[in-house]
Structure formats: C-alpha cells, structure tokens
C-alpha cells in the first residue's frame, strides 16, 4: 500500500505506517465491537492515530460512524465554565484532553448514559443551534437568559479584569482602551513572530490611529514575503473607520447636534479637503436624503444657495441641515462659514425650507450653529 502512495515523503510515510499499525491493533483487540470501540482503553489507541494534538477528531469521527461516544468539545467547555469558572483553551492544559470529558460523562449519575450527558451539554453550549436549540453557553455566553446563572461559577466570578485573558475579557464585555494593543495582537497575529513585531510597532497611546505609511513600511520589512499582516492591519483600521459610517434610512431622525456629529464624524474626520453636505428632511424632520454639495476650500461661489436649494426642492424637502468639516481639526466657524450660513438661512426663509443647523466637524469635536444661537 505504501509503495502506491508515491506522493508521500519519508516523514509522511512513517506517520501513515504508524497510523495503519495502530488501526490494525484496534481491529485485533476489539473486532470492531461498538461497545469495546468506545471504551477509554481503546480510545487511547484511536488518539494515537490523530497527530497534532487533535484527539477530539477521533471522537467526532467515531460518532459520525454511528458509535455513541461523547464528543462535544464545546459542551465540555461549557461544563468547565459552569463548574469551575474557567474556559482556558491552553493547549498545554492536560485537563482539556477529551479523556477527562469522557470520565466526567461516565461518572455522572443524572443521565442513563454518558452519551446523553454529552448531548445535553452540547445543546447547552449552542452546538445544536442548527436544529433550533437555543444554547446559552457558547463562545459568547448569554448569562442574562441562562436559568443556571445563579449556580454558575463563571457568572459569579467577575474577578479582577486585569488578570483575565483577552478571550475572557471579550466574553465578559470587559475590554477597555488599555486592552486595545493586546486585542489587536490577538486578532491579527497568526504566529509568535508576527505578534512580537506588531507589539514592538504599536503605539500604546494610539494603537489604531498612529500608523503612518513609514511605520507600516517598517513593520512590513520585518515580515516574510508571504505574510499578510499589513493587509490584516489595514483591514482592521478600515472596519473601525467604517463602523460609524452607516447609511441613514428614510424616517430616521436626528434628535440633537451630537447625533449629527456622531453620524458624520468617521466619514469626515480623515478628509484632507473641506466637504460640504446637506441633509434633507421632511415636514416631520425625518431623513429624506443627503447630498454632497462641494469639496474643496469653502467660499460663497462654491457653496451657492442655488445648488443647495435646487436639491432640496427636487426632493420636496421641508427643512435641511448643513454639515462640513475642518481638516485642521479646529471646529470653530470661520468668517467665511458664518457668511455662507447666514446667506443659506436667508434663502431658506424665502423658499420655505429652513436651515435647522450647521454642524462643523473638526477632529473629535464639533460646533453646532443651532446650539450656539448662530442661526
């Protein structure tokens, strides 16, 4: 058989030989009797077949072949979380080996079989969600809707978040600004070398923002040719940038200048030129549409009432809001801003489409003409 496997190198042939010999030993000792196949003694042989510390795969394969053996790794994780307040995934932790889970299922006296105990734990962990079972103790525990939360060690052990692993902080909604560098390493690094390089390159004061082209190049030069760490880093930053840029829907409303700022902040803060936007509203001040009027240095000729109100009339708007940015980061209105706004307000009164506000975005701050009584 091995002679026919021409594509295998010496190491792979040796590994395959070992697996075949173990399998033949299992056949000899059990005669493929299902009751003997799922004994812990025989399973220890199955685990030798699976390399790279993947013993759970053996259990899942046996289950797929019709052997009723406990095999739910997520169920075991939920049980550990409930009974010990722990969900450590450390590969070096021997207690995470499925042998321990089999022993627990065998020793319990609530269910008739170990397999039944495993299936309930699997459902509890959300493993059966595809079958309509509402598990509450998956990767993101839903403790508020868990009937066992008062007896749960993990729920009770809020503990000191400084000592928590980053995975547990995510699950407990404990991520703070100080955790962002570690969170970025957890998300982006696929090996220790990448993690170390990223850690050395991060600016802890501004881990997501302080990435000039020069710093990105320096980090890229530390990576092998096949690494895509830089692409993953840029993808993460783009996700963060676009998180706040959500399209408004008809019937949406702004209830304050802060809401206007929050909506346009991400869109405008990185623009290198001034961009003037109008938000068109119906007679109940609900969102109709938004239009880019101009981009560049704002002046009376670029922001002309004709362009602003032509669009408003076309959409049959009953009111509008003006929004623009200051690339300098200073949101205070210039004389040109005051003059343009005054002119738009006057024309709005003439055509019956009032200007409700003009919000200037500058960096992480803003100025509202309405709030300051400048309209």
Folded structure, characterized:
- The chain has 375 residues and is an alpha+beta fold.
- It has 4 domains: 2-64, no CATH class; 73-151, no CATH class; 180-243; 257-368, Cytidine Deaminase, domain 2, CATH 3.40.140.10.
- It contains 16 helices and 5 strands.
- It has helices at residues 10-30, 34-37, 40-49, 55-64, 73-84, 98-107, 114-124, 153-156, 166-171, 180-188, 192-201, 213-221, 229-243, 257-268, 305-314, 335-351; strands at residues 275-281, 287-295, 319-325, 355-362, 365-368.
- The chain has a 5-stranded mixed beta sheet, sandwiched between helices.
- It starts with 9 loop residues before the first helix and ends in a 7-residue tail after the last strand.
- The model has no long low-confidence stretch (mean pLDDT 82).
CATH architecture descriptor of the largest domain: 3-Layer(aba) Sandwich
For the largest sheet, list the strands in their spatial order: 2-1-3-4-5
| Discrete helix count | 16
Helix-strand topology string:
HHHHHHHHHHHHHHEEHEHEE
Largest β-sheet summary: 5 strands, mixed
N-C termini distance: 87 Å
Overall geometric form: elongated
State the name of the first-level CATH class of the largest domain: Alpha Beta
Mean pLDDT, rounded to whole units?
Answer: 82
What is the CATH topology descriptor of the largest domain?
Answer: Cytidine Deaminase, domain 2
Q: Which runs of at least 5 residues are low in confidence (pLDDT < 50)?
A: none
**Which radius of gyration do the C-alpha atoms yield?**
31 Å
By secondary-structure content and strand pairing, the structural class works out as: alpha+beta
Number of domains: 4
Report the β-strand fraction as a percent range. 5-15%
Specify the CATH homologous superfamily of the largest domain: Cytidine Deaminase, domain 2
Compute the number of strand runs.
Answer: 5
**Helix share bin:** 40-55%
